[in-house]
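Hi there, hope your week has been kind to you so far. It would help a lot if you went through both lines with me. No rush at all, and the record is pasted right below:

***
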Amino acid sequence: RLGHGVFEKEPLLQRVVKTYKKVKEDSALLLSACSHLLHNKELMASLAESNFDAVLTDPFLPCGPIVALYLALPAVFFLNALPCGLDFQGTQCPNPPSYVPRALSLNSDHMTFLPRVKNMLIFLSESFLCNVVYSPY
């Protein structure tokens, strides 16, 4: 649903505000679902009694790792990257937006000035949206 408005002829600021509201609404829904899962004592007790070896989870949403921590199980991520550049921060791997293309930007690593500006704007918006999504957790 987030990408449906890509071809609409709205002003940039209006599209940014609309995207921000949609991300905030979706993340509130996911946080609510996670909260209901964690507060469902019967289900959490059933999961604890099941003696699982690990929790397979998508690292995009923190609920899976939170459940894994609650159950004292290792979390196994099935994505090749962590959201918000946390994989680069965790490994202290350089990731300058002036050179390394952002995911989904369609930029190559041989960028001229305008693709570098686009890459930087994507980088800044990712930081902002990550704060919106993950700060409630």
The chain has a mean pLDDT of 85. Strands lie at 55-57, 75-77.
